[in-house]
Amino acid sequence: MIKYRSPGRINIIGEHTDYNDGYVFPFAIDKYIYINLEKSEKFEFYSESENKIIIQEKLEKTNTWADYIIGVIKEIEKILHIGIPPFKINISSTLPIGAGLSSSAALEVGIAYGINDILNLNLSRVEIAEIGWKVENEFIGLRCGIMDQYACSLSKKDNAILLDTYTKQFQHIPLKLGEYNFFIINSGVKHELGNSEYNKRRQECEEVLNKLNKKTFRDVNKNDLEKLNGTLFKRAKHVVEENERVLKTVEALKNSNIQEVGKYLFESHESLKNLYEVSCEETDFIVDFLKNNVLGARMVGGGFGGSILVLSKKNEFYNLIDELNKRYHEKFGLNIDYFEVNSANGVEKIGD
Ligand code: GAF
Asked: For the Galactokinase N-terminal domain, which residue ranges apply (predicted)?
């Protein structure tokens, strides 16, 4: 049995820009999907958290968590014109599932990496990320961008990745936060409409391009916004300004201006809430509570629940959390979950 671990990710800034040819700035975190792979007679998939085994002789879609695995195997077969022999695959996780921390990309990338390693297929880390992205778009049906799979595959500990999703160029930028650190607060909610609203946002952005007669969002600038109104104006304004914020955040980080990084996080949240409209009551409540008490905070990932990224001094964060949990529980009847974020390497083998 060969063991691999594939990390989740946070995104410092650049939300809903990755399918709009924009910039993103994520890094992998030390919360993982663990994958054990072993050649076998049949395909056998076991998830510890689901406590379920799925056995298949011929791979077919199941509409369950196993589709992320099945999709990857089928995609590798398709692009390399090979048959993949049956594997027994065990999955366990320290990464909260469905919390906006990229658990599905971690699984896709982990499976592709492991199979590539065992069968010596010579796929690069970029190709592995692209396979995961294709599976998500074509097999699962979420029309996501490339951020999550690139972060899970290409991250380097102590760095974040500035990724230009238009050219697919990326650079690792050292994560030097001085006396501050990032924290995650999991709101514990994931609203059902998330996936359908995600695809709807994508469609609205395509409508923006049609209206402006442009091929790529990369050519949309502030002056173009005047030609739009209503929903399309709001969506486009978010994308244009969020891209600017990514580049300003990278500069601020390079200059060790962590206060400024925090300011952009709050601005990003406001924009995701009011212009892109992918936030929700629960995550807004948490960000509002934190507003005057930490350097920065914003929802992270696709939205409609999930997690909040917080930039704060450690003791200040821990001093707030009990009061926040109390008020959150009073209002929503739910408890938050939280942890300090440590950066991590992309997917890797951890043992035979
Ligand atoms: C989800 C998607 F999978 C990403 O591609 C990205 O669009 C993100 O939402 C929003 O920035 O995580």
From this structure: 4-35
Longest CA–CA span in the chain (Å) reads 62
- Average pLDDT, integer, range 304-322: 97
- 180-341 fold: Alpha-Beta Plaits (3.30.70)
CATH architecture of 2-173: 2-Layer Sandwich (3.30)
Residue 5: per-residue pLDDT = 98
As for ligand 1, residues whose beta carbon falls within 6 Å of it are 15-16, 18-19, 144-145, 147-148, 301-302
Using the atom order of ligand 1, give the atom closest to the CA of residue 105.
3
Q: What is the pLDDT of residues 151-204, one digit of tens each?
A: 999 999 999 999 999 999 999 999 999 999 999 999 999 887 778 899 999 999
Distance between CA atoms of 102 and 133, rounded to whole angstroms?
12
DSSP 8-state code for residue 219: G
Residues 229-274 have pLDDT tens digits of 999 999 999 999 999 999 999 999 999 999 999 999 999 999 999 9
Q: Which residues are tagged catalytic?
A: 148
d(CA 170, CA 25): 10
Which residue matches tokens 């992998």? 28
Q: Whose CA is nearest to atom 2 of ligand 1?
A: 144
Which percentage of the chain shows pLDDT scores above 70? Answer: 100
Across-strand partners of 305?
Answer: 190
Band (352; pLDDT cuts 50, 70, 90): confident
**Adjacent-strand bridge partners of 26:** 11
Using CA atoms, how far apart are residues 70 and 79, in angstroms rounded to an integer?
14
Q: Which ligand 1 atom is the nearest neighbour of the CA of 136?
A: 3
Nearest to 57 by CA among 44, 69, 48: 44
Atom of ligand 1 nearest to the CA of 142: 3
Q: Using the mean position of ligand 1's atoms as its centre, give its distance from the Cα of residue 76 in Å.
A: 23
DSSP secondary structure, 223-264, as one string: HHHTT--HHHHHHHHHHHHHHHHHHHHHHHHHTT-HHHHHHH
The residue extents of the domains of the chain are 2-173, 180-341
158 alpha carbon to ligand 1 midpoint, in Å?
Answer: 22
